Amino acid sequence: MNTNFSCKTCASADQKLETFISNLSVDTSHHRMEGQSVKCGFGLQGICCRLCSNGPCRITPDGPKGVCGATADTIVARNFLRAVSAGSGCYIHIVENTALMLKKTAASKGVLKGKVALAKLAEIFAVDEADEHVRAEKIADMVLADLYKPDYVKMELVEKMAYKPRFDRWKELGILPGGAKSEVFAGVVKTSTNLNSDPVDMYLNCLKLGISTGLYGLTLTNLLNDVMLGEPSIRLAPVGLRVIDTDYINIMITGHQHSIFAYLQDRLIQDDVIEKAKAVGAKGFKLVGCTCVGQDLQLRGEHYQEVFNGHAGNNFTSEAILATGAIDAVLSEFNCTLPGIEPICDELKIKQICLDDVAKKANAEMKPFVFEEKESQSNDIIDSVIEAYQARRGVVALNMDADHGNDDTLTGVSEGSLKSFLGGTWKPLIDLIVKGEIKGIAGVVGCSSLTAGGHDVLTVNLVKELIAKDILVLSAGCSSGGLENVGLMSPSAASQAGSKLRAVCESLGIPPVLNFGPCLAIGRLELVATELAEAIGVDLPQLPLVLSAPQWLEEQALADGAFGLALGLPLHLGLPPFVTGSPVAVQVFTQDMLNLTGGQLIIDDNAQSAAQTLDAIIEKKRKELNI
Amino acid sequence: MKRIIIDREKCDGCLNCNIACISAHEEGSNFYTVNMLSPDAETRNFIKFDAQKGYLPIFCRHCDEPECVLSCMSGALEKDPLTGHVQYDESKCAACYMCVMNCPYGVLKPDKRTRTKVIKCDFCDDKVDGPSCVKACPKKAIEVKEVSL
Ligand code: SF4
Ligand code: SF4
Ligand code: SF4
Ligand code: SF4
Q1: Domains and CATH numbers, chain B
Q2: Which of A195, A364, A535, B71 lies in the 20 to 30 Å Cα band around A266?
Q3: Within a domain: A21
Q4: Is the ipTM of this complex over 0.90?
């Protein structure tokens, strides 16, 4: 045990994890926070521009404009739109790959596990084909055709997917997106040097990217994955470091593109592969969940009970998971695959394989996934993981924490599984809301970060405050990874809720915080919200529903946030998204947005006061609905 | 007595010390909220760039024999014998700017908006966690050191 590090790591809402990490001898993000604690004020305010060689320009009292004449408002808006474009690009990459995977799976008459999802998509897209493979391929083609349109041609599925009142509002505002990939391109062009300088135009562009990101990158990625991998179904599952079983050859997966693992995860439990594992002294193979792809696997865990051992933790738990010494390989295909895992993998002889070059790690083997070669690729991967297992087990010390996490996290919640749980209709939930047994709903989503008090600190504290006010919390993203590890997604957490919500949860046997899985499932929350609004007959901004990304981390989260604002929902963030140096940005996000879409940004890093603000918004919306 | 000691070689010219100083003098503000565009935003420290020498952090030295105090006729500037800090009392200032002309480091200046007072380092009123600029410097180019007279 290296106590040299113990005083230096940052706080975590997960006490056991904090202790585990503080005792590690390897360097983790939690150790590096201290060395990065002095932050640049210009960066925090978004008023640094380095788009050209006359810069970097920073806004100061003596230099209120950049050399080119750009004001703080222009610089902030350009930086923000660039970030939203990049974030959108990330999600569009995911949905593009997912649609391509569905197309190829369908064309090769592969297994389609999600019949309900297929029927649902066929209905939304108005695809009328008898053969399920032809139907699935057509659906994938329609998604791809939209993604590849130029930015001046509107995407066709937006109207089919969006809630009518929302679609109409977006049309009025002129923010219906063209081809999603081209929109990313347009956002990047617009923000280059001496091009667009109009902050309002750029923020409207952000909303447009929010729509394409949300409907395609989020909502459709889920539904397409459901078709291939099976729909989520509600169950109790173990979470935390305890899920790692040292008797098996363990593969940690990181990323967002679950379908890339579809073939491999079935292959890992076939007899000949298990025999290979046994030949080297292991009982077989297990996948250990980490980051969003782990959450996604957990969500569909019902279909993968044999190969999936459970979700161990979120992005900033990944280094700790590796430091147990019991992981033999990391397979990554997207973020959040921290560069910080590289030296740990080297030191602990953990094999790293990247399946998508967008997430190529410096010291990892690159093995770009090729659908047509998935059989031979999977066999190669299995062989090199076995090799790593043989080289390291027995040599590398184990440092397990069987006490971390819990065995009864409720998982598998989706728009579909929740509705069936309620008896195939939203009426019971609506009745509870109308009666005030559930005061409102908060979608607490997004990432985990090490700021705003420490790892998951604000997320966990805010959720505790919200449930105490009888607000039901739905979570999607790495926020879920943190909330489940501290037990807030276990049925026993009902005791931490306000008396009314507690009674509801206890009678249904559910926790007050429902686990929708990965950040992609923010798209599922949108589906739930839309179906509720439809059932009640109101528009989304009228619902007693708020969003919060208390510990948003990166550009993708900003694109998600733009979606939330386009939907017209109040959105709370713990820390400002690098925009406070611009008076126009502050005005647009906190005030004008209410008139544009009905949305509103709330910035507050204090759990108590943020919960009070969100509670007041919910109360106000209830009053307006006369409930 | 505490002084801010400068290690010129370490300075990267990031101006974080400027922001910290402006924020320290805007009531209730922090790095996210400090208004850099306010007419009252004034920094009490300066970073100059010299093609040969690189960045030159210019901070009040709270001199042993402060020229600003010696040149001040109205008693607005005084050296506190206990803390060693050279303090400015706006209410006594006649705005003659003799101090501005006499500071050998050029660290004093009239305020931008009213030009009726002097902008001077107050050592952040001896805050317990030290001067804001020092805390904000990522390069440790400025540090508080104890010096004896
Ligand atoms: S684009 Fe303008 S503000 Fe940006 S670095 Fe160049 S001159 Fe400065
Ligand atoms: S203002 Fe100038 S002369 Fe006066 S104490 Fe500071 S550095 Fe010395
Ligand atoms: S000590 Fe305080 S007042 Fe003096 S330069 Fe630093 S931040 Fe400004
Ligand atoms: S904060 Fe430090 S490195 Fe940055 S300009 Fe000031 S003295 Fe130099």
Answers
A1: 1-59+121-149 (3.30.70.20), 63-120 (3.30.70.20)
A2: A364
A3: no
A4: no
Q: Residue A109's domain spans which residues?
A: 72-229
Which residue's CA lies nearest to atom 2 of ligand 1?
A: A68
A595-614 mean pLDDT? 97
Q: How far is the CA of B18 from the centre of ligand 4 (A)?
A: 8
| Position A532 in a domain | yes
Q: Which ligand is nearest to the CA of B103?
A: 2
* Cβ–Cβ gap A44/B41 under 8 Å: no
Structure tokens at A614: 């969100």
Following DSSP, what letter does each residue of B28-95 receive, concatenated?
T--TTT--TTSTT---SSEEEEETTTEEEEE-----SS-HHHHH-SSS-EEE-TTT--EEE-GGG---
CATH number for the domain including A549?
A: 3.40.50.2030
Q: Of the ligands numbered here, which is closest to the C-alpha atom of B11?
A: 4
Which three-class secondary structure string do you get for A269-289? Answer: CCHHHHHHHHHCCCCCEEEEE
Interface residue of B31, B47, B48 to substitute, partner A, most A CBs within 10 Å = B31
Q: Are residues A101 and A139 in the same domain?
A: yes
Spell out the alpha helix ranges (H) of A191-313: 199-212, 221-229, 262-267, 271-279, 291-299
Residue A207: inside a domain: yes
Q: Read off the pLDDT of residues A227-284 as tens digits, 9 standing for 90 and up.
A: 999 999 999 999 999 999 999 999 999 999 999 999 999 999 999 999 999 999 999 9
Residue where one domain finishes, among candidates A342, A359, A392: A392
Task: Specify the pTM.
Answer: 0.94
Whether B19 sits inside 8 A of A41 (CB atoms) is yes
Distance from CA of B73 to the nearest CA of A (A): 30
> What are A72-94's pLDDT values in tens digits?
999 999 999 999 999 999 999 99
* pLDDT of B148: 79
Position A280 in a domain: yes
